Structure formats: structure tokens, C-alpha cells
């Protein structure tokens, strides 16, 4: 990753974060986030989404972690990644253990964290060449 990405007003530090711009070889990287918005590939998304190095699926998942369903988790598992990052909004909220069972049975790691941490971790793992999928709920 090289350079500093200039993001629109509102994308900054504190409750939000800016990231360096990718050179394109890494695939989709998260450029920034703030409450109610995530910026990827120059586009701002205002709803939950799935992002992998090669795919971006807006409109995924629940508004709140407590509403997560088996179908939401299956949508992440369909990518058959090494690891799933589950961004649960402003705070880390662990879903019911029964929702994570399918990932454990397939020997796919699943990490639950607040969405900001999931965005940062996703970019690091993509930069390392890891096969990662992130399911991100809005903060």
C-alpha cells in the first residue's frame, strides 16, 4: 500500500479512520469508515456489506448483531475463506454460539470485533495475502 488517500469531509480520525490507498494488486481494501459509512474503491456504502479481496456484496446482514441469522453466517461461509471477520457495529457483540458452529465445523476461523477493528484487521490480512472475508455491520 502506498500514498495517503484524501477522503471527503467527515472521513477522518477519532470515531472514523483513514487508510493508505492500495496499489490495486491487493484487491478491495477499505479506504475509510465512520459511523454509518464505509468507503471502498472510491464508493461510500451506508449499509452492511461483505468484502473479500475480489468481491464486494453490499446489502448484507442485519442492522444489529443481535439480529444475525444462520443465513447471514452462511453467506460469509459461501466464500470458503481461511478466516471470517465479523464487524458487529460500534461495539464488539458476540452472536449466539450456535450461529458460529457452522464455521467451526468447516474449520474456518471466525473473529468477532467492532466494525472499526474489523476494517483495520481486514486490510492487514489482505496485505498479507490471506484469504479473508469480512461481514461488516454499520457503526
Automatic annotation (TrEMBL):
Coiled coil: none annotated. It comes from the Bacteria. SUPFAM superfamilies: MTH938-like. This is Uncharacterized protein. It comes from Thioflavicoccus mobilis 8321. The lineage of its organism: Bacteria, Pseudomonadati, Pseudomonadota, Gammaproteobacteria, Chromatiales.
Amino acid at each position: 500500500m502506498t500514498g495517503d488517500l484524501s477522503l471527503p469531509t467527515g472521513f477522518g480520525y477519532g470515531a472514523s479512520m483513514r487508510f493508505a490507498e492500495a496499489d490495486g494488486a491487493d484487491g478491495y481494501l477499505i479506504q475509510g469508515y465512520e459511523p454509518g459509512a464505509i468507503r471502498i474503491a472510491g464508493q461510500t456504502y451506508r449499509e452492511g456489506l461483505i468484502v473479500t479481496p475480489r468481491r464486494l456484496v453490499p446489502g448484507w446482514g442485519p442492522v444489529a448483531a443481535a439480529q444475525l441469522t444462520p443465513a447471514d453466517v452462511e453467506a460469509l461461509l459461501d466464500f470458503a475463506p481461511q478466516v471470517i471477520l465479523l464487524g458487529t457495529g460500534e461495539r464488539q457483540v458476540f452472536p449466539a454460539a450456535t450461529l458460529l458452529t457452522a464455521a467451526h465445523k468447516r474449520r474456518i476461523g471466525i473473529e468477532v470485533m467492532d466494525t472499526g477493528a474489523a476494517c483495520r484487521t481486514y486490510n492487514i490480512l489482505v496485505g498479507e495475502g490471506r484469504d479473508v472475508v469480512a461481514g461488516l455491520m454499520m457503526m
